[in-house]
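== Sequence entry ==
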Amino acid sequence: MRKKELLSNLMKEAHSLGRTSGLNKSEALKKAWQLQKLYTRLREGIVRFHFYKTDGTLRQARGTLHTNYLPGKSTNTRSKTNPQQMIYFDTDKNGFRSFKKSNLLP
């Protein structure tokens, strides 16, 4: 991804996070960077990360978006999704899962 495109996407993501979750500009931009880094790592292999579920409990996840680990031809994970959710393939549960982007922990 080109630098200009990356920055544009980060700013859009930060704006969306600020609008939907009430984060201030600084917090929203930090969260957008964190999400971008996680997305990049998920595309490269299996990653362990943490987030809060909607019921408030902590979830320790192990997932990926690397095509070698996905079942069948399920490579398009960004289409027809809620823009406030991040989708990943859970390697422990062997299925696709999602979480609210604002609930990702550092």
